[in-house]
TrEMBL record:
<dbReference type="InterPro" id="IPR037069">
    <property type="entry name" value="AcylCoA_DH/ox_N_sf"/>
</dbReference>
<dbReference type="InterPro" id="IPR009075">
    <property type="entry name" value="AcylCo_DH/oxidase_C"/>
</dbReference>
<protein>
    <submittedName>
        <fullName>Acyl-CoA dehydrogenase family protein</fullName>
    </submittedName>
</protein>
<comment type="similarity">
    <text>Belongs to the acyl-CoA dehydrogenase family.</text>
</comment>
<keyword id="KW-0274">FAD</keyword>
<feature type="domain" description="Acyl-CoA dehydrogenase/oxidase N-terminal">
    <location>
        <begin position="16"/>
        <end position="131"/>
    </location>
</feature>
<dbReference type="InterPro" id="IPR009100">
    <property type="entry name" value="AcylCoA_DH/oxidase_NM_dom_sf"/>
</dbReference>
<feature type="domain" description="Acyl-CoA oxidase/dehydrogenase middle">
    <location>
        <begin position="135"/>
        <end position="233"/>
    </location>
</feature>
<keyword id="KW-0285">Flavoprotein</keyword>
<dbReference type="Pfam" id="PF02770">
    <property type="entry name" value="Acyl-CoA_dh_M"/>
</dbReference>
<dbReference type="InterPro" id="IPR046373">
    <property type="entry name" value="Acyl-CoA_Oxase/DH_mid-dom_sf"/>
</dbReference>
<dbReference type="InterPro" id="IPR036250">
    <property type="entry name" value="AcylCo_DH-like_C"/>
</dbReference>
<keyword id="KW-0560">Oxidoreductase</keyword>
<dbReference type="InterPro" id="IPR013786">
    <property type="entry name" value="AcylCoA_DH/ox_N"/>
</dbReference>
<feature type="domain" description="Acyl-CoA dehydrogenase/oxidase C-terminal">
    <location>
        <begin position="245"/>
        <end position="393"/>
    </location>
</feature>
<dbReference type="Pfam" id="PF02771">
    <property type="entry name" value="Acyl-CoA_dh_N"/>
</dbReference>
<dbReference type="Pfam" id="PF00441">
    <property type="entry name" value="Acyl-CoA_dh_1"/>
</dbReference>
Length: 397
């Protein structure tokens, strides 16, 4: 894999897909954002997003990773990662809605295979068509890395379940129709030696006893999070996702894949930052010469490019192994750790090179710095990744 800020792809169908995706991102979608004045701090509404879902679906991008029977092209993990990287590298605010990351098919992900025919028809296929949106509600205030300490409970009552609890950081919650909620079965895990049992449910967000509240605004400034408050919320038994007591397995079942597929998005954003930085060093003049003529700056951008190349190479190597059916749990931990830490170092240097502009709100580099800083914590902290790597090494022969 050679280094490039705009990679070229020769093999079909990827070459044509990337060309069409770039045209959409840089043309029509950029115009749409500009016309509506959309920035990373915009409070997005369904009116903003639904046209993007529908148009992306028309163009074949929304849910493109899915099997053909669901309207997708059955992409490999590597092919999907390439498209995710391109979306992030474009700098489009609404990029998260093009492939379906924000409330769409990518948010639902592997959960589709646990759904009944009725659940597919009522909940998930409308999501695939861009008609409905979902969010995933697992995290609680005191149940993040230690997710099994959650307090949200579900109790069977006749032909329904009664849910009580408070979920936080439900991404896409502000514009979702339903949530995939994981709850501890009431009465389980309350005594020593009794393991808690967890189940997953499809909860309509307009159900009695369910409240969607404004979530905390992350340091990226995006308004995409909600709290889901459940107060004796009654959920029909047919909305149980999978088997009772198997909810945590459903929630964490594709964690290795998710961990790897978050990396291309961070790589794309970092690629964007390096591109912007090189543009600045070529055009910003100091003492009558471009900034890039200074050896100190040359060394900085050389290190930035080298780290990006290393992070990207290891990520795609792991994705290729995953496509071959190999066990890449340890490599996924390594990729998440290295991509997060190297991306942060690259963005830190980008801010340094941009000077006061890099410290100014409204400057894209300043926004990307905040966004990338979050990646060292989101989807598992760097410390959690190191734990996973060490655990994997312990079992090596």
């Amino acid at each position: 894999m050679t280094f490039s800020l705009r990679p070229a792809y020769d093999a079909p169908p990827l070459a044509a897909l990337v060309d069409r995706l770039r045209d959409y991102l840089e043309g029509e979608l950029a115009d749409y954002e500009r016309e509506r004045g959309i920035t990373p701090a915009t409070r997005l509404t369904r009116a903003d997003l639904e046209p993007v879902w529908q148009r992306s679906r028309e163009l074949g991008f929304y849910g493109i990773h899915l099997p053909e029977e669901h309207g997708g092209q059955n992409l490999t993990y590597t092919q999907l990662a390439v498209l995710k990287e391109e979306v992030a590298a474009s700098g489009r605010v609404l990029g998260h809605s093009v492939l379906g990351d924000m409330g769409g098919p990518l948010r639902a992900g592997d959960i589709l295979r646990h759904a009944t025919e009725g659940q597919l028809k009522t909940y998930f296929l409308p999501v695939v068509r861009g008609e409905r949106a979902c969010c995933f509600s697992l995290t609680e205030t005191d149940a993040g890395s230690d997710v099994r300490s959650m307090r949200t409970t579900a109790e069977k009552d006749g032909d329904s379940y009664v849910l009580n609890g408070h979920k936080v950081f439900s991404s896409a919650g502000p514009f979702a129709d339903f949530a995939i909620v994981v709850a501890r079965m009431a009465g389980s895990g309350e005594t020593e030696g009794d393991k808690p049992r967890f189940s997953a449910f499809l909860v309509d967000l307009d159900s009695p006893g369910c409240r969607v509240e404004d979530g905390a605004t992350p340091m990226s400034g995006e308004h995409i999070e909600s709290d889901i408050v459940l107060d004796n919320c009654r959920v029909p038994a047919e909305n149980l996702l999978g088997e009772e007591g198997k909810g945590m397995r459903i929630a964490l079942g594709r964690v290795t894949v998710n961990r790897l597929l978050h990396c291309p998005t961070a790589l794309g954003a970092t690629r964007r930052a390096l591109d912007l930085t090189l543009d600045r060093t070529r055009n910003r003049k100091v003492a009558g010469q471009p900034l890039l003529m200074l050896q100190a700056i040359q060394h900085k951008v050389a290190d930035m490019a080298t780290e990006l190349y290393a992070a990207r190479s290891m990520t795609y190597a792991a994705l290729a192994a995953l496509d071959r059916g190999e066990d890449v749990r340890t490599e996924a931990f390594m990729c998440k750790l290295y991509v997060a830490e190297s991306a942060f170092r690259i963005l830190d240097e980008a801010v340094q090179i941009h000077g006061k502009e890099g410290l100014t709100q409204g400057n894209e580099i300043e926004y990307l710095f905040r966004k990338i800083r979050m990646f060292r914590i989101l989807t598992g902290t760097s410390e959690i990744q190191r734990n996973g790597i060490a655990h994997g090494l312990a079992f090596l022969a």
